[in-house]
Amino acid sequence: MISKIVFTCLPWILLPFLDGETIETLPFLEKTKIPQNHSEMWSGFDPRLEPLETEILKEWEDDGVILQVLRFRIGLFKGKRAMMAGVYGYPRGAKRIPGLLQIHGGGQYADYKAPLTNAKRGYATLSIAWAGRISAPQYRVSPDEVKLFWNGEVKNSKYKLTTDWGALDAYHAPSRYGKDAFPSIPVADWTIDAVESPRNNSWFLVALAARRGLTFLERQPQVDPSKMGIYGHSMGGKLTVLTAGSDQRVRAAAPSCGGISDRYSSNPLHLATVSDPPNLKKISCPIVFLSPSNDFHGRINDLKTAISEIPSREWRISCSPHHNHQDTSEYEVLTQLWFDRYLKDTFSFPNTPKLNLLLAKAQIPEVSLDVDESNMLSVDIFYTQQGQVDGAKDNSNNTKNRFWHHVKASKLGDRWVARLPIFSSESPLWVYGNVTYGLPSPISGVGYYYGEYNADRFVLSSLMQTVSPTDLQRSQPLVSMEPEHTIEDFKDDWQKEWFTYKPEKWGLRTHKIYDPVWKAPRDAKLSFEILVEEANKVVVGIDSYATEISIEREGYFTKIELTCADFTNAEGEALQSWEGIKELRLDELETLRPGRGSKAAPKKLGGPWKGKPPKFKNLCWVDM
To answer: How does 317-353 read in b/e, with b if 16+ C-beta sit within 10 Å?
Structure first.
């Protein structure tokens, strides 16, 4: 029990005591000893030192899995205790099984579905609620409930205990004091240090709490402390890297969509401490990076550099084409497989595909891929000329919408090869390979946003190779692609250049219309033919605009022609021109969201589909 706290405050020193003994989790700072690097930032912190003071807030059983909403002590900061809430789950009767720490992303929740599904595969899991949000049966803490907790409204029927950062603020979306400290290193009354210090940054605070989460795991009778892994998505992906880079207890890590691209801050102190490079350089455990090709947060062009920075030689990557911050089962399942390999030794990974890019004068560029062929299903090459030159400021619109051309590789001797027709020698060339492998038996899990999936295959990627415009021009390759009006013929492997986040539905989308090869003529119409089994409504979407088409003719292809004016947004405004359009969608239904600050209501188009999926042909631009 804390009965007395005495503060001795010097201009740059904080010295709290309990009965003459220092009780603060972090040592005090002097102005001349502000941490300047990764090691100094963590100096003096022992994640095992303080008691956990665990509180079980709710406990229940679900299909043989014991689940608990609980809180444990993070530490004592500026004389106030901080507590982390989370959901812990394990198979009933389990002893000394692998333990997993799951870290949610920005705007997400600690969710019981992660511990539940992991327990069914033989893992004990702690999902920490670093932002205070929790999703569990009869214990849901949304941002509104987090605010009730902040304000101490204990008499409100929706009030629930959750994460309490005490004197600090490492919440996110929203933050308690109105501004989070992830992108900056602030100095405020709610930060640890009264000077600019990396310990004031929220990345550091949440990573510290995650390390305390590892302490919680290793002390549970269900967990083998020598077999602990960590994974997280988005901000949770970066926090996975920060935690694995600071705690040797992590024996396997799986960050998705984060942990590789925080390397461009203008603040040198941020770069030297809480950015990705100094943390990547400390990771010695096996690690798999899940990095979709169009992700805005963990950008594929930083992945090769990140791999070169980690000391660990045990790594793999999986890069879904066209996806941004979401994935489908054959990519998401890498997380589960990784822990099966390094915490259970029940799975064996193929080697990483090795890609070589060949450029020759007056010839089409070629790639060759060295592939581990055991249980292999397919070899695919993806490339784009919409990348950016190294060192250029990231163009977020381009990053999220660039189009990746697909080429199916063919076996030639002991390698797989493909030719890459290019459109220009004045744009960079980015290329990587994907190899799809079959699984011995399907694996069930929950993905980045806790959606359930079932996977019968997985995908490993090569490192991406890049060629700058200067080097491309020097090699003088054959430029063989020309502008086309035909966007899609719906033949052969056409779906490889389209994508979806809902494979159980027929709807698809593509960025082909953003590529200069398929740039729309100024006064063209968008044309396609569609065949339906029953009368239905089809939604065609372009960026934030869409149109709904009723198809009554059954059993025959119906030709559709659309102008810009046919597409409207949630506010009812028409698309003014094809210039700069990025994404094309074909689907059964869609909800258009109004822009920020708009008073318009969401606009719903289409409806539940009847009968078999439609068939399409001749998607193209035609003259008015």
So the answer is: bbbbbbbbbbbbbbbbbbbbbbbbbbbeeebebbebb
CATH 1.20.120 is held by the domain 52-285 = no
**Helix 202-218 crosses helix 235-244 at what angle (to 10 degrees)?**
70
3-state SS of 15-42 is EEEECCEECCCCCCCCHHHCCCCHHHHH
> 3-state class of 305 per DSSP?
helix
At a CB cut-off of 8 Å and minimum separation 6, what does 380 contact? 406, 407, 408, 409, 433, 434, 435, 436, 496
Spatial neighbors of 418 by CB under 8 A, at least 6 apart, are 366, 367, 369, 381, 407, 408, 409, 410
Strand pairing report for 429-446 and 405-408: unpaired
Confidence grade of residue 29 (pLDDT, cut at 50, 70, 90): confident
Predicted TM-score (pTM) of the model is 0.94
Domain with CATH 2.60.120 in the chain: 488-623
State the Cα–Cα distance between residues 368 and 358, nearest whole angstrom.
8
What is the secondary structure of 470-487 as a DSSP string?
Answer: HHHHHH---B-----SEE
pLDDT of the residue at 596? 86
For the chain, what is the radius of gyration of the CA atoms?
A: 26
Residues ≥6 apart with Cβ < 8 Å to 152: none
List the Cα angle 99/54/169 in 5-degree steps.
95
DSSP label at 296?
S
**What's the pLDDT band for 179 if we cut at 50, 70, 90?**
confident
**What DSSP element (H or E) covers 411?**
strand 410-412
Amino acid at 483: P
CA distance 265 to 394: 12
**Residue ranges matching CATH 2.60.40.10 in the chain:** 354-432+459-482
- Amino acid (one-letter) located at 451: G
CATH number of 488-623: 2.60.120
CATH number of 354-432+459-482: 2.60.40.10
pLDDT at 94: 98
- Rounded Cα distance, 301 and 263, in Å: 12
Query: Strand pairing partners for 423?
Result: none
CATH 3.40.50 maps onto the chain at 52-285
Tell me if 192 sits within 8 A of 82, measured CB to CB: no
d(CA 316, CA 330): 14
Distances (CA, A) of 522 to 21, 181, 206, 227, 484: 75, 46, 50, 60, 14
